[in-house]
């Protein structure tokens, strides 16, 4: 039997969050500063959104543009502040200069989350070896999702990789949910669903005016309708 696909929407503020929930989003990714591809939001923003909606929230742990961890102890402090503000799910991912997973940084930050669920984000799309990264992270507590386009350039180029990876569920490193996002368009949804993908992530596509405007409940509802038609 098919199951309802997960629809995750990027939210920058309370207005975005309320509209995304009204449109049928299952979960929000909370960030700030999309010019830097999404950084950690302020604790006050997280608290305000947590009070305004009752769907799941995943909060970004990222202090600067790029995929280097930077100041890991500061990241740990930020994680603590966000948890105090009501965050209990997170998004993170760090690579070193060679494109290998920065395992020490990921382990340190994930350990500070004390079992909270978290997503390894699109750093995987910049990794030198996706398979090796997955296997290195396979047993980390809390890791239940990879956000990926299958390619650094987006779903158009990454579709074959996504289809191949979703068929590997059950292998070491491939038990986590494949959450597809990054240049995702509605035309991609059918082939991804047919392959077994059941989680989707949208940002600009949830905004009628793109990043210049807020999340549109109607735009989110359009995605919800398509997903439900294919998977519900």
Automatic annotation (TrEMBL):
GO terms for molecular function: copper ion binding. Pfam families: CutC. Belongs to the CutC family. This is Copper homeostasis protein cutC homolog.
């Amino acid at each position: 039997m098919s199951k309802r696909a997960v629809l995750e929407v990027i939210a920058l503020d309370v207005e975005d969050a309320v509209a995304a929930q009204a449109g049928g989003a299952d979960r929000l990714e909370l960030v700030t500063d999309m010019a830097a591809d999404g950084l950690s939001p302020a604790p006050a923003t997280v608290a305000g959104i947590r009070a305004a909606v009752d769907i799941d929230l995943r909060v970004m742990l990222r202090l600067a543009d790029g995929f280097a961890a930077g100041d890991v102890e500061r990241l740990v402090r930020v994680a603590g502040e966000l948890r105090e503000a009501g965050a209990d799910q997170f998004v993170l991912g760090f690579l070193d200069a060679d494109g290998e997973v920065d395992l020490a940084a990921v382990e340190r930050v994930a350990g500070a989350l004390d079992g909270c669920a978290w997503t390894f984000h699109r750093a995987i799309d910049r990794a030198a070896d996706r398979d090796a990264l997955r296997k290195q992270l396979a047993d980390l507590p809390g890791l239940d999702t990879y956000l990926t386009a299958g390619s650094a350039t987006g779903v158009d180029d990454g579709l074959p990789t996504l289809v191949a990876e979703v068929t590997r569920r059950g292998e070491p490193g491939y038990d986590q949910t494949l959450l597809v996002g990054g240049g995702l368009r509605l035309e991609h949804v059918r082939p991804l669903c047919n392959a077994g993908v059941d989680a989707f992530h949208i940002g600009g596509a949830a905004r009628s005016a793109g990043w210049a405007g807020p999340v549109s409940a109607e735009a989110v509802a359009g995605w919800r309708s398509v997903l439900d038609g294919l998977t519900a």
